[in-house]
Design goal:
binds 1,3-dihydroxyacetonephosphate; alpha/beta; 249 residues
């Protein structure tokens, strides 16, 4: 049985006071901690302070990104070592906004995943097709290729630290969610790909989250799907009431 994961990607949002209030409310939530992981990914600059607020709760604090080198002349970058130093539990990697706005390639994402493996640092590895790719009917090829390239050189054992998030680019921040059937069929395609690349037992264990306009209104239908193990939530994770409803779907 795969544990479910509800993760909030706060992106470049919230003032510090708002972020602290939000973490405070989340630490008071009751949810089944045996069956569910709750993760928040705030801005780098808040990680340390928010980690202190979340310390005695089950909420895990993740980064949204990191660089693959440990230290050196990489102005503006943050290493896994630095994140671990302040108690950060893991990170998102390869988000479509990193890929599209900051030109992160599959090769760079693969280097980051390799660095995460070397540091035993859990990651939520994001993949997803654009609208043009879906309209052209190549979405499954595109997404499984992203999975394969990101995981190049990653062994079965290394996969323990990896959660995958399928986030169709056209569904992010648009209010358009993939239908639960479309999301399910992509999750199944990713799992089949992992079954071929590794083996069925591993494919059955990897958690695959859906992201893209997840809201209190659609979370239950998505979570009812056999291959959807959780959600990576943007906009709806920025307010305590909507995020709480998603956590307790
Ligand atoms: P929205 O939930 O705002 O569509 O964002 C999804 C996302 O990009 C999470 O990483």
């Amino acid at each position: 049985m795969r544990r479910s994961v509800i993760a909030g990607n706060w992106k470049m949002n919230l003032g510090f006071g708002e972020a602290a209030d939000l973490v405070n409310s989340l630490t008071k939530l009751n949810y089944n901690t045996e069956q569910k992981d709750v993760i928040i990914a705030p801005s780098f600059v808040y990680l340390s302070e928010l980690g202190k607020i979340a310390k005695d709760s089950n909420i895990k604090v993740y980064a949204q990104n990191f660089y693959y080198e440990d230290s050196g002349a990489f102005t503006g970058e943050v290493s896994i070592e630095m994140l671990k130093n302040i108690g950060v539990a893991g990170s998102i990697v390869g988000h479509s906004e990193r890929r599209m706005i900051f030109h992160e390639t599959d090769e760079v994402i693969n280097k980051k995943i390799k660095a995460a493996v070397a540091h035993k640092f859990p990651v939520i590895f994001c993949v997803g097709e654009t609208l043009e790719q879906r309209v052209a009917g190549v979405h499954e090829e595109v997404v499984t290729a992203q999975v394969g390239l990101g995981l190049e050189g990653i062994s079965e054992k290394d996969m323990e630290i990896i959660t995958i998030a399928y986030e169709p680019v056209w569904a992010i921040g648009t209010g358009k969610t993939a239908s639960s059937d479309d999301a399910e069929s992509m999750h199944k395609a990713i799992r089949n790909f992992l079954g071929k690349k590794y083996n069925k037992a591993l494919a059955d264990n990897v958690r695959i989250l859906y992201g893209g306009s997840v809201k209190p209104e659609n979370i239950s239908e998505l979570m009812a799907m056999e291959n959807i193990d959780g959600a990576l939530v943007g906009g709806a994770s920025l307010k305590a009431d909507s995020f709480a409803k998603i956590i307790n779907y």
